[in-house]
Amino acid sequence: MHCPFCRNADSRVVDSRSTEDGTCIKRRRQCTDCGKRFSTVETASLTVVKRSGVSEPFSRDKVMSGVRKACQGRPVSDDQLAVLAQQVEESIRSKGAAEIDAHDVGIEILGPLRELDHVAYLRFASVYQAFESLTDFEDAVADLRRHALRDAG
């Protein structure tokens, strides 16, 4: 990390704090040459590998945008989508992998989406689980009913 004031490559950490959501560490640094202080923010990178083989950083916004399409016309707020995206990211990060396939991100969305809205879940699942027939939909609906009964009782 170069000092933003004098470009010296050496600095020492004066203070470290975790952010509220625990995804970043803020560090207060002091340049060993000019003595000025500056802050840095460190995050662990999470990379999504697309079908084409291209890698890109994980994005909560992309999760929200994909799920928003499935939730179109449903009573789901942007705040609820933001919480879902956070749950998905936390779930992926808890597995400890630095890279994840884009398809696996879609699969990770299914659990929180099932809890949020059943119709949106079916729409999304039909794509990510590659439904090919009415039987696939019937099985998914039966599974939703089992979950609803288990949660109610």
UniProtKB/TrEMBL annotation:
Pfam families: ATP-cone (PF03477), Zn_ribbon_NrdR (PF22811). A zinc finger (unnamed) spans 3-34. Residues 46-136 form the ATP-cone domain. Its cofactor is Zn(2+). The keyword Zinc applies. The keyword Transcription regulation applies. Keywords: ATP-binding, DNA-binding, Metal-binding, Nucleotide-binding, Repressor, Transcription, Transcription regulation, Zinc, Zinc-finger. InterPro entries: ATP-cone_dom, NrdR-like_N, RNR_NrdR-like. Binds 1 zinc ion. It comes from the Bacteria. HAMAP family: NrdR. Negatively regulates transcription of bacterial ribonucleotide reductase nrd genes and operons by binding to NrdR-boxes. Belongs to the NrdR family. This is Transcriptional repressor NrdR. The lineage of its organism: Bacteria, Bacillati, Actinomycetota, Actinomycetes, Micrococcales. The gene is nrdR.
